[in-house]
Every structure is written in C-alpha cells, then in structure tokens.
Amino acid sequence: MAHIAIIGAGPAGFYASEELLGQGFEVDLYDALPTPFGLVRAGVAPDHPKIKAVTRRYAKTAAKPGFRFFGGVALGEHVRREELLERYHGVVYAFGTATDNRLGIPGEDLAGSHAATEFVAWYNAHPVFARHCFDLSTERAVVIGNGNVAIDVARMLMLSPEELRTTDIADHAIDALAGAGVREVVVLGRRGPAQAAFTNPELRELGELSRADVVVDAAEVQLDPDSRAWLTSDAADATARRNVEILAGYAQRAPAGHSHRVALRFLRSPVEILGDEQGRVRGVRVVRNRIERRDDGRLAAVPTGEEQVIESGLVLRSIGYRGIPVCSVPFDERRGLIPNDAGRVVGNDAEPLPGEYAVGWIKRGPSGVIGTNKKDAADTVARILEDREAGRLNAPARPDPDSLEPWLRERAPGLVTWDGWGAIDRHETTAGEPHGRPRVKLVDLDEMSRVSGGR
Ligand SMILES: Cc1cc2nc3c(=O)[nH]c(=O)nc-3n(C[C@H](O)[C@H](O)[C@H](O)COP(=O)(O)OP(=O)(O)OC[C@H]3O[C@@H](n4cnc5c(N)ncnc54)[C@H](O)[C@@H]3O)c2cc1C
Ligand SMILES: NC(=O)c1ccc[n+]([C@@H]2O[C@H](COP(=O)([O-])OP(=O)(O)OC[C@H]3O[C@@H](n4cnc5c(N)ncnc54)[C@H](OP(=O)(O)O)[C@@H]3O)[C@@H](O)[C@H]2O)c1
Fold first, then answer.
1. Per the CB 3.0–4.6 Å rule, which of 229, 286, 300, 416 could disulfide with 268?
2. Which CA distances in Å does 284 have to 78, 106, 301, 311, 321?
3. Domains of the chain, start order
4. pLDDT digit string (tens) for 431-441?
5. For residue 49, is pLDDT > 60?
6. Is the minimum distance from the CB of 148 to ligand 2 under 6 angstroms?
7. pLDDT in tens, 82-108
C-alpha cells in the first residue's frame, strides 16, 4: 500500500489526509508543533470559536484507519527531505507560510513595531511566540493593511477584558490586553474602500464592538472615478460592493460615545516609522495616495506627496504572510512559496519531481479561508492519483512503516502522537471548564510533552 508523509497539520494537511485515506493510501501527518490544526489553533481569532469547530472534522479524519500523527517533528530540524523520500511513496508539503511581508521602510525594526503575524501568534499561545513582549501602554495603535488579519488584530485590541476572558486566548495575553492603554486603533489602507480585502461579516463585526465606535471619514468613501467605474462593472465582486456600502454606512453613523474607537483610514501609505530618543516607536509618517488605473487594469496607489504624522507607540504591519524555505525543498524566493505545477513540486528545470507535492498556503500563497484549502487539497490529490495510476510515485529505498515511529522518537524526543494530542486536548479543555472557557492553552513545549505522556 502506498504510504504518504504530509508535512504540516493545518487545514491543507488535514484535507489532503482525508482525500488520501479515502483513496486507500496510508498517511503520516507531521507537524513541527506538538499540537495539530495550524492557523485554526494559532491564527483564527479567539473570539471566533464557531470557526474552530472545523477541527471536529479533522478529528474524524484522524480516527480513520491508516492515519498517524507525528507532532513535535519539524522538517528541516528533526528530519530531512531526503530521509522522507527514502521512506515514503510521496511527500506532501503543507507547512504554510511562517513569516510576514515587510514594508521595507525606515524604522520598521524599532521597538514597538511588529508584524501582525507575531501579535496573532502571541495572543493565540503559539509556543514560539509566547514570550514576545508587546508594550500596549500607548493610547493609539496603528495597524497597516486592509485584510481580515488587520481587522482581527484591531478587534482584539478593542475587546473588553470580560469578553476576552470567555475565549481560549493565551492567559498572558488576557493580562496584557486587560491592562492595555490602547484607546484607539487606526487601520491604514494604502488603496481605497473599493480595494479593501476585508470580507463583509468581518467588516460588519467591527461596527458591533461593545466598547468601541468605528469611525470612517465620509470624504474617504467618496470613490474616485476609476474605482466607481470598476465597482459598477462586471469585474467587481459582490464583497467589494458590499464593503463600500458598509463603510459608507459607518461614515454616516453618529458615534455612540464609547470609550474606544477604531478609525479606518484609506489612501494612506506609511513611509517611515518614527522613533524617539530611546529607539521606541513614536509615530508613523504617512503619505496620501490617489488611485491610478494601470495599463493592465489594476487600480494602483500612487503617492500625492501630501504627508502627515500619526502619533502612536505601537505599529502592527498586517500586509500578508510569507512562506520560508524549508530544508532543500525547492522554493520560489520571489513569490515566497514552493514552485509547483497544479500541486506537483517542480525543480529548476520546471519538471515535476517524482513523489513531491504541495498544498495550501505554501502551494498557492497566503490567501483564502479555511474551506479554500479543501478544493486545493483535492486538486493536489488528483495529481497524486494520476501519478499512482501512471507508476510515477516515488520508489522509497526503505519502505517500512513500522520502523518509522522508533526512528522519529530518536530524532524528536518530544514526539506527540494523536493519543498524546488527545491528552493535551483533555487537559486544556478541563482547565477551561471552571472558567466557562473552551480551553486554557498550554504554551510551554516541555509541559505539553509531559501532559501528552511523552515525558
Ligand atoms: C490570523 C489569521 C486568522 C484567520 N482566520 C480565519 C477565519 O476566521 N476563518 C477562515 O476561514 N480562515 C481564516 N484564516 C485563513 C486560514 O487560517 C488559512 O486558509 C489556513 O490555515 C491555511 O492552511 P495551511 O494548512 O496551508 O497552513 P497553516 O494553517 O499555516 O498550517 C501549516 C502547519 O504546518 C506546520 N509547519 C510549519 N513548518 C513546519 C515544518 N518545517 N515541519 C513540520 N510542520 C511545519 C505549522 O506548525 C502548521 O501547523 C486565517 C488566517 C490567519 C493568518
Ligand atoms: N475571519 C476570516 O475569515 C479571516 C480572518 C483572517 C484572515 N483570513 C484570510 O486569510 C488570508 C490572509 O489575510 P491577510 O489579511 O493576511 O492578507 P490579505 O487579505 O492579502 O490583505 C493584505 C493587505 O495588506 C495590504 N498591503 C500589502 N502590502 C502592503 C504595503 N506594502 N503597504 C500597505 N499595505 C499593504 C494589501 O493591500 P493591497 O490590496 O493594496 O495590496 C491588503 O489590504 C485572506 O484570504 C483572509 O481573508 C480570513
């Protein structure tokens, strides 16, 4: 029976597992963390518990015969690509996009300037980011970017301590956010309302915060002629049209007089993050943009030269995630992902490498919701089926599934199996029960290993 290793136990890894098990393959699902579920655990906002119910489907996949989970085993640290190819008929890379895009402007590395990726991982108890420090004493925070992650971080900064305490947010983040001085979050979009990457429910939710007003300048939702023409054309999607309506509604709203506010500002790009004498962020110098239609039809932001300074002690750049090269797996530096042809990993000569596949964000880039990865996984698995049919899978030199777990335990003493994860899960949910929380997440790798029964 053909045996496949999937590297990364996020949504893409689980959907690929489900498809492969259904086609008679055996699957070993690896993750660098002792815990499964990728960004469903470490990305999705703590106040969105219903989204996380998708993990029940993943648990059903894990219960199927032929499935094994090897948590706490990182490709590139504990095992090498070549070693996996010696042991499996196929390797599917599903390791997501671990880092962030950078603005490339002066001041980006000042204390108080962070990637939203780090802030998200910190409040979600990702063990690698749990010890990060965010100075939240400033009155105003600036979030750069107009995607759903920008909305998530703005909202997390505005939730009340009572709201946070009913979630699975990291304990260290509850304490820090409850004591935060932030009263205003300014969210900056480099283009206009018609080009925002928000989805409608997320944008609407900002207008329903219990202790924050949402503020939009009416002049900024007056669209330029090119954006207006685009929005009424067939090229525009319903989400963009609805976003503009929601934002126009916000612009007409009288503030409810809440203690906090989220200001959505458009057509503004940061050009410099300003520091004080101690090297701490004291503000952001931004330039006003106008929209210009390019030859390819794209509506681009073009600086007008008009600048202003927004005073702030905390800047979170939320301008997209980015993949990192892992081991010797082919990597496209420019696009930040694994070069592939419809899921088949390709080498320098653009020819498919036998038995190597990619799925999820590391295959197509960091966009799309959880469900997008299901179709994406089905597409990659279709290539694997074609290759099995044509006898083009990898031919491993040491195809012995039973020898794998002892070998991996030598390499990664903190290895966590699905049963081990079950023990962590029970520990966390039991700890949450008395407080009416879904779980209290463990953040310490040694403690996770101990609770899992590994040590
Ligand atoms: C902040 C944030 C919030 C989001 N909220 C929502 C939401 O509310 N609703 C929604 O539908 N979508 C949401 N999304 C999108 C959704 O999370 C993604 O579409 C999805 O997680 C991508 O799946 P993936 O499996 O490709 O990557 P990931 O979920 O990132 O999973 C990759 C996995 O690979 C593991 N890994 C990394 N490197 C290695 C290695 N070297 N060896 C072994 N394992 C490794 C990681 O630990 C991780 O578990 C959100 C995304 C972000 C960033
Ligand atoms: N609740 C949810 O369903 C949820 C929550 C979080 C994330 N997600 C999904 O996860 C995916 C990733 O979300 P994301 O927010 O990280 O990415 P995203 O949707 O791609 O948004 C990135 C934003 O950053 C802006 N940007 C990029 N480079 C910039 C620069 N140099 N200066 C200023 N702005 C810049 C982009 O503007 P331009 O358009 O001008 O390039 C865009 O507004 C999305 O598909 C999202 O829907 C979903």
1. 286
2. 41, 10, 18, 6, 22
3. 3-98+323-415 (3.40.50.720), 102-320 (3.50.50.60)
4. 999 999 999 99
5. yes
6. yes
7. 999 999 999 999 999 999 999 999 999
Return the pLDDT at 455: 54
Determine whether the shortest distance from the Cβ of 129 to ligand 1 is under 6 A: no
* pLDDT tens digit sequence for 217-239: 999 999 999 999 999 999 999 99
Does residue 202's CB lie within 6 angstroms of at least one atom of ligand 1? no
154 lines ligand 2 (CB under 6 A): no
How many angstroms separate the alpha carbon of residue 185 from the centre of ligand 1? 25
Residue 291 in tokens:
């929209």
Interior/surface letters 222-259, b for 16+ CB within 10 angstroms, e for the rest: ebbebbeebbeeeeeeeebebbbebbeebbeeeeeeee
Q: Which ligand is nearest to the CA of 102?
A: 2
Ligand 2 atom 17: residue of nearest CA: 320
Of 47, 100, 119, 190, the one to substitute when testing ligand 2's pocket (max ligand atoms within 8 A of C-beta) is 190
- Report which bound ligand comes closest to the CA of 358: 1
Residue 454 has pLDDT above 80, yes or no: no
Number of the ligand closest to the Cα of 153 = 1
What integer best gives the mean pLDDT of the chain? 97
Interval between CA 103 and ligand 2 midpoint (Å): 13
